[in-house]
Design brief:
281 residues, mainly alpha, 2 domains, disordered C terminus, transmembrane helix, heme binding
Length: 281
């Protein structure tokens, strides 16, 4: 089985996990969530196996590089990290309702990679400037940060819905985790993601200097990465210095994730060194 076929199968495994978590939330049953957890873990194992197989395949083709160089490969890695971050949260806090809002994001990332005709899944040789270990460090740190922000987005959406809910505590929204828990988890995920995004920007600058002789060139993705960094920096500043909590932080978190999505997808429509169309030959 080649890596692309395996990862296509994993797409449906993540879909099954998301459906099980949603069913557990909607029908007030714990058993679907328990199955959803194991299905998510199986999907993660398949996801990581697919990444490993793709790495091996690239060496067999005489190309030999880490599978982190184009849109397809980054989406595959992104979905894996979202699943990892979520499963750690569930193991730590035992709140499976969160899975109904996070596992669909892992599914959507991998579905776009595997099923969209606009995403090329071919293994391609790297441009000379990309043949650097700094590429691996840069992509891994950035996407760990992006995954944490995706989870924070799910938590923020839950918080906003919970904050507006004044009805039956046994209703769909009433069964969300306590609002203070959602706020604290959201803060922790943003802190975690911010640290890794910062590391990603720093490693990217070092890589740019070694590849192109300058640390910063105001490439569209560099610019939008900085904008995203400033949004989350503003959020953290408002929380630490102004005491902001709750709904205002949730809205800023959602705005930050919108910036993440534009940095990830929208910037690829613009010409620049970070366009995924320019990352292979």
């Amino acid at each position: 089985m080649n890596s692309s076929l395996l990862l296509s199968i994993v797409t449906f495994v993540y879909a099954a996990s998301a459906i099980l978590y949603i069913a557990s939330w909607v029908f007030k049953k714990s058993l679907p969530a328990a199955f959803g957890r194991w299905v998510a873990l199986a999907g993660l194992i398949g996801n990581m196996t697919g990444i490993g197989l793709r790495w091996i395949e690239s060496y067999q083709m005489g190309i030999g590089h880490a599978p982190l160089s184009n849109l397809y490969e980054s989406l595959v890695f992104y979905s894996a990290v979202i699943a990892i971050v979520y499963l750690v949260i569930e193991w730590r806090y035992a709140m499976p309702t969160i899975g109904a809002f996070v596992m669909p994001l892992a599914f959507l990332a991998l579905a776009y990679a595997s099923l969209s005709p606009n995403v090329n899944d071919r293994i391609q040789p790297l441009l000379p400037a990309l043949k650097s270990n700094w590429l691996i460090a840069h992509v891994i740190t950035c996407f760990i940060g992006y995954a944490a922000f995706a989870v924070a987005f799910g938590l923020s959406l839950m918080y906003v819905l919970k904050a507006r809910h004044t009805g039956d505590p046994q209703s769909l929204i009433g069964r969300f985790p306590d609002i203070r828990v959602l706020d604290e988890l959201n803060h922790q995920m943003i802190m975690f993601g911010f640290l890794f995004l910062t590391a990603g920007i720093i490693t990217g600058s070092v890589w740019a200097n070694s590849a192109w002789g300058r640390y910063w060139g105001w490439d569209p993705k560099e610019t939008w990465s900085l904008i995203t960094w400033f949004i989350y920096a503003t959020l953290l500043h408002a929380r630490f210095m102004r005491g902001w909590q709750g709904r205002r932080i949730a809205y800023l978190s959602m705005a930050g994730f919108a910036a993440v999505l534009f940095t990830y997808f929208g910037v690829n429509l613009l010409p620049g060194l970070h366009s995924y169309g320019a990352m292979g030959q």
